[in-house]
Write a structure and sequence with these properties.
alpha+beta; 21% strand; SH3 type barrels; four-stranded antiparallel sheet; 11 helices; 37% helix; 338 residues; single chain; 12 strands
Length: 338
Amino acid sequence: MAAARIPVEERLFSLVLALLATDAGLTKQEILSTVQGYRQRYVAGGDNGNLERQFERDKDDIRELGVPLETVEPLGEAGNNQNLRYRIPKGAYDLPADVRFTPEEETLLHLASMVWREGSLSAESGRALLKLRSLGLDAAEPVLGYTPRLRARDEAFEPLSGALQKSAVVTFSYLKPGMLSPASRTVEPLALFQHEGRWHLYSRIPGSDETRTYLLRRIIGPVAVTSRRFTPPAGDQASIGLAELAAVWNANTAVVRVVPGSDAATRLLRRRGTEASGDDELTLHYADAAILADELAELGPEVLVVSPEHLRDAVRERLAAVIAAHGGPSHGGGSTNG
C-alpha cells in the first residue's frame, strides 16, 4: 500500500523541528528514517537515492528561508559524507536579545501555540521522538510537541497544492451562488492565495489565456488531478490573482445602515476599507455579493441594506429562509431588510 502523501510544508517543518531538537545534530540516515515526510518512504537497507536527493533539495529550501542549517564533520572522519551531522544551532535561531513581549502579546502567543499543539503532526512527532531516543539522542520533547494544523483548511487545498507542484490539470465540481447543482470545471491551477481570510484558486482555462478565480469553499466533492501537464506562465501568479480580486473588492461597494453602538456597527466598522457617514451609515467593499449577504444576514435586525438592490434581495432571501426554517412565514415581509 502506498504511503500517504505528506505536504511539502509539513515535511520542511518537521525537518526544522528535528534539527532543533538535538544539540549533537542528526546524520542523513537518522533524518530519513525518523522525520515525518521522509520516514514513510525510507527503505531500511534498500535504495533511498530519490529520498536523499529530496533531502538535499530540502536543505537548500530551508536555508533560503533563513534557517541557519549547519553541517558538522565528525572528528577524524574527514571526507566521510555518510557520517556528516546536520543541526540548527539554537543560539543562531533564537530571537534577538532586545526583543521583548508585553503580557498581552505573550497571551496571544500562548493561545497561538495552543492552536498548533496536538495538530496533524503530534502523533508522528511522538513516534519520531521515541525513535530518536532509541538512537541514544537527547531530543527536546516540548519542541516536537508543537505543530501547525496544516489540514485545517478547505478539503480542496491539499490536492490543488499537489497539482500546483506538478503543473497538472485538475477537474472539480463548482457550485456557484444561485445554482441548484454544481458544474464541472477543468483548469490549470496557477496559484493558491488568501483574500479576506478565504482561500482562492487562481487558474487558467486549458488552451487559452483566460483566467478564472474560484473560492475553495464552493468546490464540491474531490478534486481530480489528471495526468495532463502544462507550462505555467512567468511571474508571481499568486500576486496577479490577488491583485485582480483586490480590484473587484475596491470596485464593489454597498451602503448599509446600522444601529449605532450595536454589534453589527462594531463588526462592520472593523472590515477593511469601511467608510462611515454619520452615526449609522456605512459604505462596505466586497468581492463576492453572496458572501457579504451571508455576513449581513447573520447580523439580523441590526443592519439594513440600502444598496445595491441585488444585495438587499439576497439578504432578504436568507432571512426569509431562516424564518421559514423555524416555522414562520416564508415571504420575509417583516424583516428589517424587507
